[in-house]
C-alpha cells in the first residue's frame, strides 16, 4: 500500500489495558501501520484507569471520550455517539476491540454500521449464561467482527457452532499472558506486600494482628460481578466464606469502589471489619496486583482474566461463579468452580493450605507471542487485499 494503515484500538475498563498494551507494542514494529488508542472512559478514575496506563507503559490515549458511568443502555449509547465522531474524523481502516465490556460492543456496532472492519480479541468465549451482560456483549461483538482472535480451543468450537466462517477465526493465544510475561520481573520489585503487612502495623487493615506476610501464606480475593456484590444475600454469603477461612491466613481484598459502597448500603461494614485477618484495600495498579497474585497461596475470584493469569502462574484459583467462559483454566489449569457455596469454597481453601491441589499446565499458545500473531494476520491481510473490508466482502479477505 502507498499509505499507512490506520488501526484504532478501544479501551474502556481495566482488563482492556492489559490486552491492548502488547498489541500497541506489536503494531509499533510495523512501519506501515499507524496505531491509535481510544479510551472511552468507562473506568474513569486514576485507580481504575490511569495507573494501569502507567504500569503498562502505554502512551497517553490519542482520544479520551470520558463517557463515565451509567446504566448499560446509557453507557453503551454514550460510547456509540462519541465514538462515531472519532470514526468520522479519523476514518480508520480497522478498529480493534478487546474483551467483553460495554465499550467493546458499542464500538463494534458503531464501526460496523459505517462498514469499518472490526477485529475482536478474545473472541468466542462463552459462559452460556445470558444473565451476564458480558455474555451478550461477546455474542453481539463476534457476530459483527471480521477478524476473530481466539485465546483457547473452546472459542474456536463455539464460533463454528454459531455459524461463523472459519476464514474469520484465528487461534492466536492470550494477549493478557503477553502482558504478564512482559512485566512479571518488574512486578517482583513491587513493595506492596510490605506496605500492606508492615511489622509495626498498617492503617489499611480492617482488623487482626499485623505482621510481615511471607509468600504463599495469604488468600487474595477479587470480586466485582453484580451477581455477587450487588445483592445483600450474596454479600452475606461472601462474609461467611471469609469467616470460614480467616484462620488460614491473611485475606487480601482489593475492593472495587462499587463493592465497598454496597457493603455500606447493606449495613455489613461492622461484620466485615470483624473478620480476623481481612485486609481491605483500594484497587491496585497492575504491577502491585500481579505481585500479590504471584505470591498468593490461593486466589478467590469471579474475574475471567484472573482465572487465566492464575493458571499461567500455577497459583490455585477458586472461581466463585456457577460457570466460566474460560474452560481451559479448569481442564488443564489451576481453576476450580465453586459458586457461592460456603462449604465448597472453605473446603477447597483448606485443601490448598494443606498442600493439596490438582496438577496443571499452561494452555497451548500462551507463550507471550499472541499480539505478534495478531499483528501479523492483520498486516498480511491488508497488504494482500488493500481495500476497505465490510461484512459483505469478508469472505474474500482470506481465501
Defining key terms:
Rossmann fold; 7-stranded parallel beta sheet; 6-stranded parallel beta sheet; 399 residues; 14% strand; alpha/beta; globular; 2 domains; 13 strands; disordered C terminus; 17 helices
Topology summary:
Layout: E1 5-11, H1 14-28, E2 33-39, H2 46-55, E3 63-64, H3 72-90, E4 94-98, H4 102-113, E5 118-121, H5 133-144, E6 147-150, H6 153-161, E7 169-171, H7 175-187, H8 192-196, E8 218-222, H9 226-229, H10 232-245, E9 250-254, H11 257-265, H12 269-273, E10 278-281, H13 286-295, E11 298-301, H14 304-313, E12 317-319, H15 328-331, E13 335-337, H16 342-353, H17 370-384
Parallel strand pairs: 1-2, 1-4, 2-3, 4-5, 5-6, 6-7, 8-9, 8-11, 9-10, 11-12, 12-13
Helix pairs in contact: 1-2, 1-7, 1-17, 3-4, 4-5, 7-13, 10-16
Outline the structure in words.
There is one protein chain. The protein is of the alpha/beta class and 399 residues long. It has two domains: 200 residues, 3-Layer(aba) Sandwich (Rossmann fold), CATH 3.40.50; 164 residues, Glycogen Phosphorylase B (Rossmann fold, 3-Layer(aba) Sandwich), CATH 3.40.50. The chain is built from 17 helices and 13 strands. The strands form two sheets. Strands 3-2-1-4-5-6-7 form a seven-stranded parallel sheet, sandwiched between helices. Helix 1 packs parallel to helix 2, helix 1 crosses helix 7 and helix 10 runs parallel beside helix 16. It is globular. The C terminus is likely disordered.
Summarize the structure.
The chain is of the alpha/beta class and 399 residues long.
Instruction: Outline the low-pLDDT stretches.
Output: 200-212, 387-399
CA-based shape = globular
Count of distinct strands = 13
> Which sequence of SSEs, written as H and E, runs from N to C?
EHEHEHEHEHEHEHHEHHEHHEHEHEHEHH
Strand order of the largest sheet: 3-2-1-4-5-6-7
CATH top-level class of the largest domain: Alpha Beta
The largest sheet, given as strand count, sense and whether it forms a barrel, is:
7 strands, parallel
Amino acid at each position: 500500500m502507498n499509505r499507512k494503515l490506520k488501526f484504532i484500538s478501544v479501551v474502556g475498563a481495566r482488563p482492556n489495558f492489559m490486552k491492548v498494551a502488547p498489541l500497541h507494542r506489536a503494531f509499533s514494529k510495523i512501519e506501515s501501520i499507524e496505531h491509535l488508542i481510544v479510551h472511552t472512559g468507562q473506568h474513569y478514575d486514576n485507580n481504575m484507569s490511569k495507573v494501569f496506563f502507567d504500569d503498562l507503559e502505554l502512551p497517553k490515549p490519542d482520544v479520551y471520550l470520558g463517557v463515565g458511568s451509567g446504566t448499560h443502555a446509557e453507557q453503551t449509547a454514550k460510547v456509540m455517539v462519541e465514538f462515531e465522531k472519532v470514526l468520522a474524523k479519523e476514518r480508520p481502516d480497522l478498529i480493534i476491540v478487546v474483551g467483553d465490556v460495554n465499550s467493546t460492543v458499542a464500538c463494534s456496532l458503531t464501526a460496523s454500521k459505517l462498514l469499518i472492519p472490526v477485529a475482536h480479541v478474545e473472541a468466542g468465549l462463552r459462559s452460556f449464561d445470558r444473565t451476564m451482560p458480558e455474555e451478550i456483549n461477546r455474542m453481539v461483538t463476534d457476530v459483527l467482527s471480521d477478524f476473530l482472535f481466539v485465546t483457547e480451543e473452546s472459542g474456536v468450537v463455539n464460533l463454528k457452532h454459531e455459524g461463523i466462517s472459519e476464514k474469520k477465526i484465528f487461534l492466536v493465544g492470550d494477549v493478557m499472558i503477553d502482558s504478564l510475561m512482559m512485566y512479571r520481573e518488574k512486578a517482583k520489585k513491587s513493595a506492596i506486600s510490605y506496605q500492606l503487612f508492615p511489622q509495626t502495623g498498617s492503617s489499611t487493615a480492617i482488623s487482626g494482628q499485623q505482621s510481615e506476610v511471607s509468600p504463599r501464606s495469604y488468600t487474595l480475593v477479587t470480586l466485582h460481578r453484580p451477581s455477587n456484590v450487588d445483592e445483600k444475600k450474596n454479600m452475606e454469603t461472601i462474609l461467611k466464606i471469609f469467616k470460614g477461612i480467616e484462620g488460614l491466613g491473611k485475606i487480601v481484598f482489593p475492593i472495587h469502589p462499587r463493592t465497598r459502597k454496597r457493603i455500606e448500603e447493606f449495613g455489613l461494614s461492622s461484620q466485615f471489619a470483624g473478620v480476623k485477618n481481612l485486609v481491605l484495600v483500594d484497587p491496585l495498579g497492575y504491577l502491585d496486583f500481579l505481585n500479590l497474585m504471584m505470591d498468593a497461596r490461593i486466589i478467590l475470584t469471579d474475574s475471567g482474566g484472573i482465572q487465566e493469569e492464575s493458571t499461567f502462574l500455577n497459583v490455585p484459583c477458586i472461581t466463585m461463579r456457577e460457570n466460566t467462559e474460560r474452560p481451559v483454566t479448569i481442564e488443564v489449569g489451576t481453576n476450580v468452580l465453586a459458586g457461592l457455596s460456603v462449604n465448597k469454597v472453605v473446603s477447597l481453601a483448606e485443601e490448598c493450605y494443606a498442600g493439596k491441589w490438582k496438577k496443571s499446565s499452561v494452555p497451548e499458545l500462551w507463550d507471550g507471542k499472541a499480539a505478534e500473531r495478531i499483528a501479523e494476520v492483520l498486516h498480511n491481510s491488508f497488504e494482500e487485499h488493500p481495500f476497505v473490508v465490510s461484512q459483505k466482502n469478508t469472505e474474500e479477505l482470506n481465501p
